Amino acid sequence: MSSISKLILLSLLCHAIFLTKCDDDEEDRLVQGINQYRTSLNLTALSHNERAECLASELADQFKGQPCTNSTGSNTIPGTEPQFPNFQNLLTKCHLNVTTTRDGQIMQACVPHLDPSLVLSNFTMSQYSGYLNGTQFSGIGVGSEDDWIVVILTANTSQGDYGLGTNVDNGVPGISGLGGCLVALVVGLFMLL
């Protein structure tokens, strides 16, 4: 009986160690809200774009520790958006090339505690709504860090589809989301055997 208890305890410990965050609630709710907003305007829903999501997450990480102010996020005056000197490195990390991102749109918002209703209104009731209303956009990627959330819209053009770049390493992307949860589950089950 003692060995079975130890095995169960070991399995639970492995799950706690290896199990990744399996839900991106803020991001998922925002995508759902944006798609409902677009549907209400008789526009097509945006499809998930993994590479845009990767870049959005990397960009959100760049805002880590930066406080919300009246001149950040969706309140930013057009033309004064933050510039990232390491942007090319972020593109490479996400297996992107600048030529496949030109027609896309990057938008960021800072909302304390990422309150879902405020996050959505920061995109649908701001200068960003013009982009969300655009028929040229077909995909979306979202990433968040602290109080910051970044949305990237992708276009259905070769210069905006966030497809693989021609001069970047086209390696296998990392396991994330549901894939990470499944890997952790299989490892946990294997440990039980």
Features:
alpha+beta; 42% helix; four-stranded mixed beta sheet; At5g19230-like; Pathogenesis-related Protein p14a; 193 residues
Short overview:
The chain is an alpha+beta fold and 193 residues long. It is 42% helix and 13% strand.
Along the chain, the helix and strand elements come as HHEHHEHHEEH
- Count every helix, treating DSSP H or I runs of 4 or more residues as helices: 7
Count of structural domains: 2
Under the CATH scheme, the architecture of the largest domain is: 3-Layer(aba) Sandwich
What portion of residues belong to β-strands?
5-15%
Strand order of the largest sheet: 1-3-4-2
Q: Helicity, in percent?
A: 40-55%
Total E-strand runs: 4
Q: Are there runs of 5+ residues with pLDDT below 50, and where?
A: 9-23, 166-178
Shape: globular
Reading off the top of the CATH hierarchy, the class of the largest domain is best stated as Alpha Beta
Domain Uncharacterized GPI-anchored protein At5g19230-like: 27-153
Pfam families: At5g19230
InterPro entries: At5g19230-like, At5g19230_dom
Signal peptide: 1-22
